[in-house]
């Protein structure tokens, strides 16, 4: 299974996809924001691949999660860090895995609390489907359909690799 | 007794068990025959006699009925915190057959009228003997002398100032001098009010950590010293109520060596608990004098063991629930303790801190001698006794406590020592329900 | 033999060690205190955004229950709750019901009807928040905003945050607390926090009348002479002196106190050159501290305010989170049963 998910291939796929979307939309100087923690590792790699000089942002969405009333506060919350003004900027938002779409909703809410961006492009490494909100990535490394007992997790930062876990392990 | 072979009306026989007489001697398996409120026969003579009822004391200790020098019956009063009926019944449940009723009632027992009220109430509603203690100053205010001779004539066995100190040493001196004239015993809780100020907990480790307002030890020891000097000078018979400090025990022992007529008691909770009981802001353990350090506790126990401290008291202070449910400073002091005294004492025996004979002495002959009375299990003596199983356990709680006060010192675990039977002048003041 | 073990730390933690009330620092370990500081760091970042608000406590009601008035503390709690998107109700009870004989239990019964999720409690009696936490409906978090002489844990933690910002860590630090330790709930909580977080030495500097009995047992050394006590210090915390102390014969005069225990530039010069000066406020200039020092380069008195909001946001969201987790735990247990 791991062999099917060649990391370089996935990253190539994301890079190509992003270049196309940027060109199509006529975006000239985008900024990258990665969602902690996997999205941040990807943002680091992609900023080099896309030759974006401006430092990327890191988002910790713990304060914006919609499941606080079920699981409480994440005890290892770290400050978000956006080393640029988001107002009027074109943002590439990056996460490792998209499923329900709730994380992305939280991330967009948080981004808007910093200011009003011109646009947001969503790029994810893996799309597991099973969406619960009307949110779709613009760019995806790969779509995957998992069995009910399977989970994927991005390990990193160096080297980046994808782990497929069987539930109960 | 000549008539012992034949049974007559209304007799009770107790067989088996270990008998402690309160003076240190113990005998196994001795039978007791009780008739007309007195012990009619003991041993062989009792065994041979048929009685109307026979109670087996297997596994039990038979001891003289306990005597409490400090008990609050809350009557007269507004009834919320208990009354003579509820609290004397609780006392009987605890094995007590005699309690001294504190003058801290509402109104205060500072007149023969109030004393009569208490005695009448006790005569009709108490299963045990109630001995009123009169207020030595009017309203316990510490300013004017009460009619001590009148109080004594009405039935008070001693005069004192309840748990309140007498602020003014000059008045204290006159209280003692006047009481001495009539040979009365005076009972004082030693506390220097200026030093105690607005404190409510022992000024020590726990108070420092929790930011409680402390009562320093010197608030007690300075008062003990003052009272001992005044007693020596006036020649009064002084009884120090509810000591809490190691230094107080030392001064007491010293005064007795010098021949001063002084006796003393300690509350059972001072022997069982320390300031640590307050660690979770547990308002139940807001007591006065406050629970002090472990070394104080050890010294108080040694004082009881060596007989320097004559008596262990309950210092029973029943309250309504609201009086105890607040931050500590806003609560009233005192435990609902009289039903737990024996059990807490047996735990001390279990831990080898106290011998069973010391415990029984401090609950029977010790306090009796302070009052100039006796507590003997012998032929012809009043049948005041209790019968308890030291190995059986009970769970203090709403279901088991008889007192109106629910704030017993221990409510979260079982305690050893179940009182099976309490006889006061031969009548059943308490009998453990069957099953 | 001890009484029933009801120490505060059982009351304020969930079974898996999360905060569910915040009453005292007693019983909280270094990991938990560090979590509070770290979470507060994240909230400081939130305070720098254009919208200084996160949706964590949206739809929840926080009641500021102040039995002793303190506009300053109450406003930082209010702001903190609002930045967490909670609805806030301020109840100033210092002048109303309880002083007219209504018991605290009765007041609480009335408040239960409001279906609030959190009480922030300030009370003049030590242990009052503890009492409330024991008697309140399960699921409601209690935050101690200062009780009697006992504890002021959020103030102490914001001071720890300030110290960490300036010194990076607690290991090796020598910290002195100067002034009225006896009546100070802040000092008790600070001494505890500094010990748990690993400060090398905590000194209290005061005359004997302003120190509690057995103060060393709290984890500090006693120094009566301030000139000696200032040597090698990395942090000096000045406590507020109430004017009433003169009346209780604890001190002869403000002037003598200032001469012996007030912080001026000469005394500060005896400390480590990088020593920071703190004060929980409000400051009595010329009583505890000289203006030149209070406003000087070593003073960090002002940025304690920003930290105050962040610490309160951290504690409120962590305690609410603990209550939530516990409720879920109970529900799932019931589901299994």
From TrEMBL, chain A:
Keyword Metal-binding among record annotations: no
Tagged with keyword Cell membrane: no
Residue ranges annotated for the Phosphoribosyltransferase domain, each copy included: 4-142
Record's protein name: Bifunctional pyr operon transcriptional regulator/uracil phosphoribosyltransferase
NCBIfam families according to UniProt: PRK05205.1-1 (NF003545)
A Pfam match: Pribosyltran
Key words of the record: Glycosyltransferase, Transferase
GO molecular function: glycosyltransferase activity
From TrEMBL, chain B:
InterPro entries per UniProt: DHOase, DHOase/Allantoinase_Hydrolase, DHOase_cat, Metal-dep_hydrolase_composite, Metal_Hydrolase
GO cellular component, one term: cytoplasm
Name of this chain's protein: Dihydroorotase
Domain Dihydroorotase catalytic: 61-245
Assigned keywords, A-Z: Pyrimidine biosynthesis
Pfam families: DHOase (PF12890)
Record carries keyword Ligase: no
Species: Marinobacter guineae
Molecular function GO labels: allantoinase activity; dihydroorotase activity; metal ion binding
TrEMBL record, chain C:
GO CC terms, sorted: cytosol
Organism: Marinobacter guineae
Reactions catalysed according to its record: carbamoyl phosphate + L-aspartate = N-carbamoyl-L-aspartate + phosphate + H(+)
InterPro entries noted in UniProt: Asp/Orn_carbamoyltranf_P-bd, Asp/Orn_carbamoylTrfase, Asp/Orn_carbamoylTrfase_sf, Asp_carbamoyltransf, Asp_carbamoyltransf_Asp/Orn-bd
Gene Ontology biological process terms from the UniProt entry: 'de novo' pyrimidine nucleobase biosynthetic process; 'de novo' UMP biosynthetic process; amino acid metabolic process
NCBIfam families recorded: asp_carb_tr (TIGR00670), PRK00856.1 (NF002032)
Keyword Nucleus: no
All residue ranges annotated as the Aspartate/ornithine carbamoyltransferase Asp/Orn-binding domain in the record: 171-318
This protein's encoding gene: pyrB
Keywords from the UniProt entry: Pyrimidine biosynthesis, Transferase
Ranges for domain Aspartate/ornithine carbamoyltransferase carbamoyl-P binding: 20-165
Lineage: Bacteria, Pseudomonadati, Pseudomonadota, Gammaproteobacteria, Pseudomonadales
Protein name: Aspartate carbamoyltransferase
Annotated function: Catalyzes the condensation of carbamoyl phosphate and aspartate to form carbamoyl aspartate and inorganic phosphate, the committed step in the de novo pyrimidine nucleotide biosynthesis pathway.
Subunit structure: Heterododecamer (2C3:3R2) of six catalytic PyrB chains organized as two trimers (C3), and six regulatory PyrI chains organized as three dimers (R2).
């Amino acid at each position: 299974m791991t062999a099917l998910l060649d990391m370089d291939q996935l990253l190539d796929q994301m890079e190509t996809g992003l270049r196309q979307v940027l060109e199509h939309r006529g975006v000239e100087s985008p900024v990258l924001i990665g969602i902690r923690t996997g999205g941040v590792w990807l943002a680091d790699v992609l900023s080099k691949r896309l030759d974006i000089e401006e430092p990327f942002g890191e988002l910790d969405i713990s304060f914006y999660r919609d499941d606080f009333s079920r699981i409480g506060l994440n005890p290892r919350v770290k400050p978000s860090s956006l080393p640029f003004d988001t107002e009027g900027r074109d943002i590439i938002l990056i996460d490792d895995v998209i499923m329900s779409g709730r994380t992305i909703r939280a991330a967009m809410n948080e981004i808007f609390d910093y200011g009003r961006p011109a646009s947001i492009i969503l790029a994810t490494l893996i799309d597991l489907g099973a969406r619960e909100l009307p949110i779709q990535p613009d760019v995806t490394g790969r779509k995957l359909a998992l069995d009910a007992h399977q989970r994927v997790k991005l390990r990193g930062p160096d080297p980046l690799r994808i782990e497929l876990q069987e539930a109960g392990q | 007794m000549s008539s012992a072979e034949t049974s007559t009306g209304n007799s009770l026989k107790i067989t088996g068990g270990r008998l402690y007489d309160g003076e240190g001697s113990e005998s196994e398996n001795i039978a007791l025959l009780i008739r007309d409120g007195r012990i009619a026969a003991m041993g062989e003579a009792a065994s041979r006699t048929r009685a109307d009822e026979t109670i087996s004391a297997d596994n039990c200790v038979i001891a003289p009925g306990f005597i409490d020098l400090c008990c609050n019956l809350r009557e007269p009063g507004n009834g919320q915190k208990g009354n003579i009926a509820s609290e004397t019944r609780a006392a009987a449940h605890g094995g007590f057959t005699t309690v001294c009723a504190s003058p801290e009632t509402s109104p205060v027992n500072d007149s023969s009228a109030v004393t009569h009220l208490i005695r009448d109430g006790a005569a009709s509603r108490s299963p045990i003997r109630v001995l009123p203690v009169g207020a030595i100053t009017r309203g316990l205010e510490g300013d004017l002398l009460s009619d001590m001779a009148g109080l004594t004539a009405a039935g008070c066995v001693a005069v004192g100032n309840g748990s309140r100190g007498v602020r003014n040493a000059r008045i204290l001196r006159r209280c003692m001098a006047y009481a001495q004239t009539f040979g009365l015993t005076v009972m004082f809780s030693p506390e220097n009010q200026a030093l105690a100020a607005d404190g409510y907990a022992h000024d020590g480790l726990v108070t420092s950590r929790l930011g409680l307002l402390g009562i320093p030890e010197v608030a007690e020891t300075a008062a003990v010293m003052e009272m001992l000097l005044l007693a020596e000078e006036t020649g009064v018979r002084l009884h120090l109520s509810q000591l809490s400090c190691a230094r107080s025990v030392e001064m007491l022992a010293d005064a007795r060596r010098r021949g001063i007529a002084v006796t003393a008691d300690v509350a059972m909770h001072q022997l069982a608990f320390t300031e640590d009981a307050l660690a979770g802001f547990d308002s139940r353990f807001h007591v006065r004098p406050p629970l002090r350090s472990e070394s104080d506790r050890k010294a108080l126990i040694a004082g009881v063991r060596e007989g320097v401290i004559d008596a262990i008291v309950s210092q029973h202070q029943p309250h309504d629930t609201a009086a105890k449910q607040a931050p500590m400073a806003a609560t009233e002091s005192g435990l609902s303790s009289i039903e737990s005294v024996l059990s807490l004492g047996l735990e001390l025996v279990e831990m080898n801190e106290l011998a069973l004979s010391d415990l029984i002495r401090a609950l029977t002959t010790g306090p009796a001698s302070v009052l100039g009375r006796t507590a003997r299990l012998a032929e012809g003596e009043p049948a005041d006794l209790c019968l308890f199983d030291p190995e059986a356990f009970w769970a203090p709680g709403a279901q088991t406590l008889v007192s109106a006060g629910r704030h017993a010192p221990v409510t979260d675990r079982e305690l050893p020592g179940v009182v099976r039977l309490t006889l006061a002048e031969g009548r059943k003041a308490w009998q453990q329900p069957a099953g | 033999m001890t009484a029933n073990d009801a120490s505060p730390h059982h009351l304020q933690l969930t079974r898996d060690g999360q905060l569910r009330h915040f009453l005292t620092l007693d019983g909280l370990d270094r990991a938990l205190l560090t979590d509070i500081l770290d979470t507060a760091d994240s909230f400081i970042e939130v305070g720098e955004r254009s919208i200084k608000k996160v949706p964590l406590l949206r739809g929840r009601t926080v009641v500021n229950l102040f039995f002793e008035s303190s506009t300053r503390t109450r406003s930082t709690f209010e702001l903190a709750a609002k930045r967490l998107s909670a609805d806030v109700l301020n109840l100033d009870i210092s002048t109303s019901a309880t002083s007219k004989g209504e018991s605290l239990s009765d007041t609480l019964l009335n408040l239960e009807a409001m279906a609030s999720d959190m009480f922030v409690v300030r009370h003049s009696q030590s242990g009052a928040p503890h009492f409330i936490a024991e008697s309140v409906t399960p699921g409601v978090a209690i935050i101690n905003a200062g009780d009697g002489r006992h504890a002021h844990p959020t103030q102490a933690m914001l001071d720890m945050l300030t110290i960490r910002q300036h010194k990076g860590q607690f290991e090796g630090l020598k910290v002195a607390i100067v002034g009225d330790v006896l009546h100070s709930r802040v000092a008790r909580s600070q001494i505890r926090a500094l010990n748990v977080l690993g400060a090398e030495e905590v000194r209290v500097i005061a005359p004997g009348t302003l120190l509690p009995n057995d103060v060393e047992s709290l984890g500090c050394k006693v120094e009566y002479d301030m000139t000696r006590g200032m040597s090698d210090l990395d942090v000096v915390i000045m406590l507020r002196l109430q004017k009433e102390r003169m009346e209780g014969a604890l001190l002869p005069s403000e002037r003598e106190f200032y001469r012996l225990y007030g912080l001026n530039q000469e005394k500060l010069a005896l400390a480590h050159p990088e020593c920071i000066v703190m004060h929980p406020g409000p400051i009595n200039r010329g009583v505890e501290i000289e203006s030149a020092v209070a406003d000087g380069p070593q003073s960090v008195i002002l940025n304690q305010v920003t930290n105050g909001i962040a610490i309160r946001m951290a504690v409120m969201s962590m305690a609410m989170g603990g209550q939530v987790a516990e409720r879920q735990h109970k529900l799932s247990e019931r589901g299994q049963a």
